Amino acid sequence: xxxxxxxxxxxxxxxxxxxxxxxxxxAVWERRAFGITLAIGATGAWNLxxxxxxxxxxxxxxxxxxxxxxxxxxxxxxxxxxxxxxxxEELQVRHALTPPAPVRRVLxxxxxxxxxxxxxxxxxxxxxxxxxxxxxxxxxxxxxxxGHTRLPRYxxxxxxxxxxxxxxxxxxxxxxxxxxxxxxxxxxxxxxxPELWGAEADPTLVVSIDAWESYxxxxxDASA
Amino acid sequence: MDRxxxxxxxxxxxxxxxxxxxxxxxxxxxxYIDPAAVDALVExxxxxxxPRNGAKVWTDPAYREWLLRDATAAIAAxxxxxxxxxHMVAVENTPAxxxxxxxxxxxCYPWPxxxxxxxxxxxxxxxxxxxxxxRGVLAEFGxxxxxxARIRVWDSTAEVRxxxxxxxxxxxxxxxxxxxxxxxxxxSMIGTGLALQPEAARA
Lengths: 224, 203
What we know:
The complex is a heterodimer. By secondary structure, chain A is α+β, with helices and mostly antiparallel strands. Chain A is built from eight helices and six strands; from the N terminus they run H-H-H-H-H-H-E-E-E-H-E-H-E-E.
């Protein structure tokens, strides 16, 4: 979706605020927000793409005025309601009113290290050959889905070159809506600065994105 | 947005503090989360994870070749694996090309090797400008590159996590791997910094 999370190329946010010797967390609530988000995610009630979509479908004004550790619990609030784990009313009164819904698992303290070490690999076995090879010229699709996508606006309908072929990975555009993993080949596609930003762009700039196969078409106009 | 704003018993607490506290108590009351597991998750990232700096890539040509070919395996061999580092790619700076990593869509970052990302990495100024004005961003970090050098920006839009291999500074011939590792900063592995100069390390 064309939400506030899709920041590449926007202007007006000012300089980068660099903090020397920055702590991992700036407040107790940030610690809890981080830990709660990971712990409730471990129940398996939603996947990584669903949590990204919950965050990015916040109102743009709210997204842009929230710190990252504010965005996480706000996303969790949406997800627990959507999945029926918690009701809106419970969030309002700030305590449980009904018995819990069943969850697949609860992360216990002794399982934390193993769960973090395992992570959540998203590579899947290839069931068909890759459509593109390194060096192929491609064009990204012009698409504006209302749902989740990982094709940023600045890189739509742009000519690029396949730089890496990563393998087959879970497709976020379907997985974020619980429509299945629908794994696809994933590529690094590089673009020149002027292709993305116009003739005035820095000619020494090259930008790449990682793009799933269905984001790409062969560049019919490319000379062989 | 306003549903948590009225709590006269906790007027000292901000809206977000109240929301996070309420969320935790509901999830604990319903037995969806174990507060001890929440503690353990936080402590893990405060005390046990990153940033890891190494210099094996500068002293061991076989390791360098392995890291650039299969970073996931080469980094796992040093003991760094897991969440947000499942699929790693290392990219090497050269005099002709400087690499910079960003996630314009969220905050993707290689947790097992660098720890949790700094606030600036997740913030709008960095995410918006890294892909359109990387030289301007680098200047804010005190980095000025030759105008002839190519700037190669990696926007991590998928689950691949990128790690920059900075250039080894001149004047470090014969240094031990351990001493060299002292020159490798977190920012130099994101691409917003360079490896420290030998004088900085001795200072």
